[in-house]
Amino acid sequence: MNGPALFPANPSRIVLTGFMGAGKTTVGALLAERLGWDFFDSDFLVEARAAMTVADIFEKRGEAAFRELEAEVVREAGEPGSEEQFVLALGGGALEMASTRDLLASLTDTLVVFLDAPLETMIARCAAHEEGPVRPVLADRVRLAERWSQRLPWYRQAHLTVETSEFSPEAVVDRILQRLEPGIRNSRRQDVRVSIGAPGKPGLPA
Q: What is the Cα–Cα distance from 49 to 47, expressed in whole angstroms?
């Protein structure tokens, strides 16, 4: 991905990117429900693959191992013959892997959406998540800012950027749907699946 990509004419998959606290999981589940598509969260897919939580993967195997697993599940989701018509919420750091960026750039049937918000807004959202766990990464604001700045150019290579700071998740979904063709907006299926982790997604990294 070397710049904002051409908007896919008839996407059958939507991938949401953005920093932690951008609302990817919440918006993704709502968007999939509105479309009648399946919904997957990459962090949950990684946990299912590794049979341990993200926090445990980081503690026992390290961030590099987590990123490899993350890239693997995203690659499998994008393979020909994989599930059609789904929304996938990527982890905030998924685009750090060049292989994942290249994969997304190569998928002509996939719409990549960047959910944007000021860093302080996203940090405040995470801190206010009462059902979620304590996130040690929130204490190191300097490191968070560095990661945000590093990832921002990759986020901005998405087909569509949607500002989320002043909109409810439902309104963000509406803004995404407005950019889709009517035939896509009305392509509901009955056998949809929703795969997400527990509320707060324990111990997630930045």
A: 5
Question: Any idea how long the chain is?
Answer: 206
- In which element (H, E) is residue 40 found? strand 38-41
Q: Which residue has the tokens 């962090």?
A: 43
Q: Kindly report the pTM of this predicted structure.
A: 0.83
Can you tell me which residue has the tokens 């932690």? 20
Per-residue b or e along 102-123, where b marks 16 or more CB atoms closer than 10 Å to that residue's CB: ebbeebeebbbbbbbbebeebb
Cβ atoms of residues 85 and 12 within 8 Å: yes
50 neighbors 57 (Cβ within 8 angstroms):
yes
Q: Can you name the residues that pair with 16 across neighbouring β-strands? A: 89, 113
Tokens describing residue 193: 């699946």
pLDDT tens figures, 66-95: 999 999 999 998 876 665 789 999 999 999
Are residues 205 and 54 in contact, defined by beta-carbon separation less than 8 angstroms?
yes
**117-to-67, 121, 135, 168 alpha-carbon distances in Å:** 24, 7, 19, 12
